[in-house]
Design a protein that fits this description.
The protein has 388 residues and is of the alpha+beta class. It is 34% helix and 21% strand. The chain has a five-stranded mixed beta sheet with strand order 5-6-1-7-8. A four-stranded antiparallel beta sheet has the order 9-12-10-11, with helices on one face. The chain has a three-stranded mixed beta sheet with strand order 3-2-4. It starts with 9 loop residues before the first strand and ends in a 6-residue tail after the last strand. 40% of the residues are buried. The structure holds a DNA duplex (18 and 18 nucleotides).
Length: 388
DNA sequence: TCTGGGGTCCTAGGACCC
DNA sequence: TCTGGGGTCCTAGGACCC
């Protein structure tokens, strides 16, 4: 397979708005404009299930992705709760990606509701408007960030997202809630000098020209790749803003974060980044299956049964994909939310489901298992595919 | 009201070998 | 009864992202 890595003039980041909720609105038009919350089995009373996507009206009640469903139900008692429907989201996502590929761009799929596009054109805003129009035809909406690299295009989308609809601009402190379609509280995207012109209109351009003006004063966590932990460690070094990160000493960052991560953080501060758009389908390096149980497990036999079940399920999926397993890992999370992993390399790569299950149980046997267990998981690492 | 599920990549330490 | 340094493989954990 040939990789398209031609230098592109513009990078576009296309991000579907409130994706899972929007998919539900497509088939339940009567729900449009209502507070809809998608997550779990659609039962707000179910413990240990969380919000995957909340419609904008639901967000106005403070409902956020990653929040327990029961909490969402308290914040927004009149919300309509719907179960996750992975198969449909996957179908709609493929429909959107196929549509994007009809434009004169190269498409790199980033998730169900996101893609990077590389375009060699003169007027990226015009292209973005055309794409938004086409997406509307699918009964969906999207925001589009335009940048001179992927990082800036991705961050531009944050400025593009509609203000006041529960979606934060970059740097408003709403880093990674851990779910797609997540949006934070919605303060005005400001730099300190007031609102950003053009923000919230669905399309926004962020390049070297306006990088400093828009990003310098924002917290480091506004950057794609800096989460709360690294932001905190940077803060301990006296680095709180993007401008301070850009001005930081690279050797100092390397000493604090490692020879690869340190300099990478410095690069992020400058807004530099990749421009490669890889159109080749993604080949996963591993596959896992995990489950948080409604009630903690304490019975050893039950724990073993569940691990065997998860191992069987994930091994069958891997086998169906024609992939070969090299390592078997087990994840155990206790009721205290302590998470531990152990893994073992197989003597030889295998497709044998019984051997994988047996190994998972062997790995499980190395855990203490002296506390109630809330989650079990099995992860398989796979032999890389031969290059075509 | 406690905190989902599925991924990727990086770092660090110990074992082992030369 | 010593001592070094490099390279690679393996595991555990951390951090981030959708």
């Amino acid at each position: 397979m040939r990789y398209d890595v031609l230098v592109a003039r513009w990078l576009l980041h296309v991000d579907l708005d409130q994706f899972q909720a929007a998919v539900e609105f497509r088939r339940h038009r009567e729900l449009r404009g209502l507070p809809v919350i998608v997550g779990g089995n659609g039962d707000p009373a179910e413990p240990r299930k969380v919000v995957t996507c909340a419609s904008y009206p639901a967000r106005s009640f403070g409902v956020r992705a990653g929040m327990p469903l029961r909490q969402a139900a308290r914040l927004c008692p009149d919300a309509i709760f719907l179960p996750l429907d992975m198969a449909t989201y996957e179908e709609v996502s493929a429909e959107v990606m196929d549509l994007l590929r009809t434009f004169p761009v190269r498409v790199e799929v980033l998730g169900w509701d996101e893609a990077f596009l590389a375009a060699d054109i003169d007027d990226p805003e015009r292209l973005a408007r055309e794409i938004r129009g086409a997406i509307t035809e699918l009964d969906l909406t999207c925001s589009i960030g335009i940048g001179d690299n992927k990082l800036r295009a991705k961050l531009a989308t944050g400025f593009a997202k509609a203000v006041g609809k529960g979606v934060a601009a970059p740097g408003t402190g709403e880093a990674a809630t851990g779910a797609s379609g997540s949006g934070g509280a919605a303060p005005e995207p400001v730099t300190g000098d007031g609102p950003v012109p053009g923000a919230g209109t669905g399309i926004f351009r962020l390049t070297a020209d306006n990088w400093s003006a828009l990003m310098a004063g924002r917290p480091t966590s506004a950057l794609w790749g800096i989460g709360s932990r690294i932001a905190k460690r940077l803060s301990e070094l006296g680095i709180d803003t993007v401008a301070q990160l850009a001005a930081a000493d690279r050797d100092r960052l390397a000493a604090a974060f490692g020879p690869s991560t340190g300099p990478y953080l410095w690069v992020l501060g400058h807004g530099a980044g990749d421009t490669d758009v890889v159109t080749a389908p993604h080949v996963p390096v591993g596959r896992s299956k995990s489950e948080t149980f409604p009630r903690d497990l304490t019975d050893r036999a039950e724990i073993e049964t569940q691990v065997a079940r998860l191992a069987t399920a994930v091994a069958e999926e891997v086998a169906a994909d024609g992939r070969i397993t090299t390592r078997v890992g087990v994840i155990v999370r206790t009721s205290t939310f302590f998470t531990r992993t152990k893994q073992r390399k197989l003597p030889a790569p295998t497709t044998d489901i019984a051997e994988i299950v047996h190994t998972a149980l062997e790995v499980l046997g190395r855990f203490e298992l002296d506390r109630p267990i809330r989650l079990l998981g099995v992860r398989l690492e796979l032999v890389p595919l031969d290059p075509p």
